[in-house]
Structure formats: structure tokens, C-alpha cells
Amino acid sequence: AGTVATILPGAYYFIRETKKPPIGLFRQHGVKMAVATDCNPGTAPLTSLLLTMNMAATLFGLTVDECLAGVTREAARALGLLGRTGTLEAGKSADLAIWDIERPAELVYRMGFNPLHARIWRGQ
């Protein structure tokens, strides 16, 4: 139906939720999954996208690829912005982070770690 499930591990943790999202069913039925901080003072005072990916992997079992797609392509899809951003393609907004890492799994695995080398925002 084009719906994107938005996974909010920070809210899950902060409000001490015990019922996990049905990740296996989402996979089985091809449901796209966005991953977000849901930063707000009431249920998720979390601002770190890196920690959010770590929590999505450790709490819910998302793979590295699912986490990375969840904070980029699928997040843009959830917001209705995939035609303009979310993937690296000619003609799309060049908002991206350049990380000083050896492999993408480092972005999901490590906590309290920010290997940002440079960022490009609005093509600058």
C-alpha cells in the first residue's frame, strides 16, 4: 500500500515499552522500514542518529543495511521526499555525511562514537 513503518527505538527505550515492533512480519510482507530518533521531550529525548541505528539493531534486530536504508532512503520515502532526497542520484539534493570508517557496520555497532569527517548540506 506504500506505507512505511517508522521504527522509533529511542521512544521504545525511554518509555520502557515491552512490545517490540513486528520486524519479521514487516520483512515477510515487504514493508519498508524507516528508522528515526523521534526527538521530543515527552517520549524520546534522543538526538543521535548513530545511537538510534545502534538501538534499532540491538533492540529490534535490524541489519546494518536495514538501519542505513532506514535513516536515508526509507526515511525520505516516509516523508514523501524520496523524489528529491534519500539516495545518491543525479538531480537529488546533495545532503550527505562523509564518515571516517572502514565499513558501514561501524556506524551501527559503536556507541558514543562520531566518525564524521565532513558533511555536505544543500550541496555545500
How far apart the termini lie comes to 36 Å
**Number of DSSP strand runs:** 4
* Strand order within the widest beta sheet: 1-2
H-E order: EHHEHHHEHE
Quote the average pLDDT. 94
Given the C-alpha coordinates, what overall shape results? globular
Q: Main sheet, how many strands, which sense, barrel? A: 2 strands, parallel
Q: Please indicate the percent range of residues in DSSP E strands (runs of 2 or more).
A: 5-15%
Residue share in helix: 25-40%
The number of helical runs is: 6
**What Rg is obtained from the alpha carbons, in whole angstroms?**
15 Å
Unreliable residue runs: none
Structural class: alpha+beta
Describe this protein with a few key phrases.
alpha+beta; 4 strands; globular; two-stranded antiparallel ribbon; 6 helices; 124 residues; two-stranded parallel ribbon; single chain
Characterization of this structure:
The chain is an alpha+beta fold. It has 6 helices and 4 strands; from the N terminus they run βααβαααβαβ. It has helices at 9-14, 23-28, 49-60, 64-71, 73-78, 105-109, and strands spanning 4-7, 32-35, 96-99, 116-120. Strands 1-2 form a two-stranded parallel ribbon. Helix 3 crosses helix 4. The model has no long low-confidence stretch (mean pLDDT 94).
Helix-strand blueprint:
Elements: E1 4-7, H1 9-14, H2 23-28, E2 32-35, H3 49-60, H4 64-71, H5 73-78, E3 96-99, H6 105-109, E4 116-120
Parallel strand pairs: 1-2
Antiparallel strand pairs: 3-4
